[in-house]
Amino acid sequence: MNDDTRISNGAAAGGEKDQPKKKRSGFVRFALIAALVATAVLPAIAAFIFLVALPAVRLAGERGVKPRAATQPSNDIARPTSGALERKDQFELLRHDEAFWSARLELAKQPKFSLAVDLVDSLASLDVRGVPVRSCKILGIKTSHALPFMFQRREFRERMSKPLQIKSETATLPKEPIRITFAPKDSVEAELAAAKPIEPEQADVFFTLYFDGNLALTVRQSGEPISSGFQQRAKSLMRLGFEQGKLAARSLFRTELPQHELRIEVTLSREDAKALYRALGFNAKVAIRV
Amino acid sequence: MRKFFVPRIHIPRFAVAGFVSLVLLALVVSFAPALREWTLAALPGPRIDRTGDGGSPREVAKLQTRVRNLERQFESLTPRRPYLIVDTANNRIFLMSGRKLIHQGICSTGSYVLLKAGDERQWVFKTPRGRFYVQKKEEDPVWHKPDWAFIEEGLPVPPVGAKERYETGVLGDYALHLGDGYLIHGTLYKRLLGMPVTHGCVRLDDNDLEIVYKNLSVGSAVFMY
Fold first, then answer.
1. What is the average pLDDT value for chain A, to the nearest integer?
2. Which of A46, A178, B164, B213 could form a disulfide with B174, with the two C-beta atoms 3.0–4.6 Å apart?
3. Whole-Å CA distances, A267 to A95, A136, A274, B62, B216
4. CA pair distance A147, A96, nearest whole angstrom
């Protein structure tokens, strides 16, 4: 008996019985396919509606003040700006300006360094006791598309009018570049240690400050990274993405519409960005004028 | 003809659909913020509320005046007499009068070295941050060497008051005392200016030091960040 015969006999004796297959009706087949597709796709569609479409449409449906040109995202989408602001809009924006300067005066009472980011005049200022010790020209501004819509809400404008406290931060450079050295045993060892060349710091500057209410301010240096900045920046962006994903999952489980994330990204020169990051202590406060 | 043995794997179809569903769900959740951004970008734009009272011209004018007053109030916090700003991140100094720059130069500031001695003592050499005042001005300053100055050279630490504790000529022609042992002074190591190499003090070039010394007085503010 050859192999082929043994296999075919085995199949006939103990394996599948050769029965005629029942033909499924077209309707049943269609229902099965529809059920499979629905199982695969419906949860994702529901999540899309809950996490993306509903919040966006709800935000877009609100009415409010016409934002200034600086609050328009400066990336690819160009929004039309029509002529002079109406008096009502001017009044609201002046109130916001009043609140911004009041916030800076309030921060001047504290001994710590604070940051004032003026997106209207494109200036970032490091203040201590009301003295702007470093004024930096903002070379580029990018904001979330949600900003012009969120600006319509009075409570948002009021929130942005007060100093914001930094809750956490990520950065591509250390706040204090501490180097540990052990005392030399004798003067010969000390001379050898002193003869070592001092390597200048080459860290790229890219940092993000996180505030309450899903707001984040990112400061990046102008120009391309010069060292391992790509890696550090990628890590920082991944962390940002992970935090966002976590918030989205949380709102899905709690069946609450997610908070809109507001991202403001400013570009400064490398020296300015480095100086600002090193000067700001943990939990420092920031005033933002939009 | 030779037959190849092909195993028949039965995978429940709904399990596959469930797996696909999970993957799609994870993608939507992960990219929800970006998708929201794209959706908002595609929408026509915020709708402006033209109803309700918006402030009369008089109210707008009053508010403009209030904003200007606040700006002036903020500006008045800047010292009128000359003050110094030290940028430790980039090792630069700026001598200011009001909002006007009088002079700028390079300096050396703290090295951020943490020196650990064998007896569990340690020192961090960093320039402090904040607002300080010039407490004392000195010509031809003498350096009172602290313990770490001997430890980091591998030398035995002499008793307090010993003549080895005093060194002349290393701090330049002038020194401005800021308190807690921190000084603005000159240096012999001109080639190291612009680098973070000091033990916390601010080292200046001879020319910059003279200008700073002559423009600042006791009580002048020094801002270091």
1. 76
2. B213
3. 27, 10, 12, 35, 35
4. 15
Task: Report if pTM > 0.90.
Answer: no
Q: Total domain count for chain A?
A: 2
- Out of A45, A61, A77, a domain closes at A61
Asked if the C-beta of A184 comes within 8 angstroms of chain B's C-beta atoms, the answer is yes
**B46·A189 Cβ contact <8 A:** no
For residue B79, which residues of chain A lie inside 8 Å, CB to CB?
A: 131
* A38 and A140 fall within a common domain: no
Both tokens of residue A139? Answer: 């070379």
The domain made up of B83-224 has a fold known as L,D-transpeptidase catalytic domain-like (2.40.440)
Chain A residues near residue B130 by CB distance under 8 angstroms: 111, 113, 128
Is the domain of A155 the same as that of A221? yes
In a domain, A268, yes or no: yes
For A171-229, how does the pLDDT look when each residue is reduced to its tens digit (9 = 90+)? 888 888 888 888 888 888 887 777 776 666 667 888 989 888 778 899 999 877 666 55
ipTM surpasses cut 0.90: no
| Angle of the A229-254 helix axis to the B13-42 helix axis, nearest 10 | 110
